[in-house]
Amino acid sequence: MGTFKRVGAVLGLMVLTGCASTVKSQRLRPDYATVDRQQVKRLAVVTQPFPQGQQYIGDLWSLIARQWLNQNRDYLVKANTSLPERPTDPAFKDQCVEGIEGVLWLDPTVKRVGEGAEVALKAQLIRCRDGEEVWAAEAGGSWDSEDTKYMERREQYVKELGPDVEPYVVPSYKLLVATLDTLPNPELNEADKDEKIDLGE
Question: Entry's InterPro entries (predicted)?
Answer without folding.
Answer: Lipo_MXAN_6521
